[in-house]
Task: structure prediction
Amino acid sequence: MNEIKIYFAPLEGITSYIFRNAFSGIYGHVDKFFTPFISPAEKSPMTPRERKDVLPENNAGTNLVPQILTNRTDFFIEAAKELHSMGYSEVNLNLGCPSGTVCAKGKGAGFLPETLALQEFLDDIYSYAASDNMKISIKTRLGYYDPDEFHDLLAIFNKFPVSELIVHPRIRSDFYKGEPRKEYFAYALEHSKNPLVYNGNIYTCKDYESLANEFGAGLDPVMLGRGLITDPSLADKHNGLAAETDFAKFRQLHDTVYHEYQKILSPDINVLYKMKELWSYWQNLFEGSERDIKRLLKAKKYAEYEDAVNRILENKG
Result:
């Protein structure tokens, strides 16, 4: 398979700097990482937790793009200015989050129906970007109510120098269910004036090959999220660097993330909560270990958890 550019999608609560650094050091082969969204507010462009996640000293060696979630021009620009002062030259606008609480505030996918307000917003932030030499990419869904909204949205995006338009071909009510509406990405390939990135339902090399057969060279770069969490060897497989999941690397990733969380979180249960969130994805790699995974997910102390992990990974040699 020809080498392709791979971007790591943000997953709230999972792809923090601890996970990104561990992944980058052990696996590599990711061209860009995107942060879980920063949600600027009246009093501050980012919370202390959000700031810690983007600090350059916490992200050495990763090509990181901070993502911003807002429908306020002034909030976006203040956050972008602060990120620029930290050394970032690109930020990403989140127009895809389908969460009910986010959309109710007119943010994320909830901003998509407000096409006039959205156009004014983009006019302002791209004017700022030109003055501060900042690139702005956009991650979007097809629309809020109906996928045909994408025709008007794409016409709006075409008016601006979007550094990359990352398209998740679902509408808000699809959330992450069902098949992506691939015909709309095909429409984007034909009509977008800006560089495109495909995002959605790539869990295996076969998934990618099927899409590449449909879209051709237009399927590069791709953004992987849940698929790359579920199987951390997926980027290696895409680029012909591995044929199978590398469980020695998986063990290294697990142990690194686990021990780094132990340094900053307490008591045990808070660390285990973070690890169990990862295992909600990882368990798909361990068919036949359902009993031990059940024990792992019930563990309340490190010893119980570690015993379950050891049993699960022993089965993989």
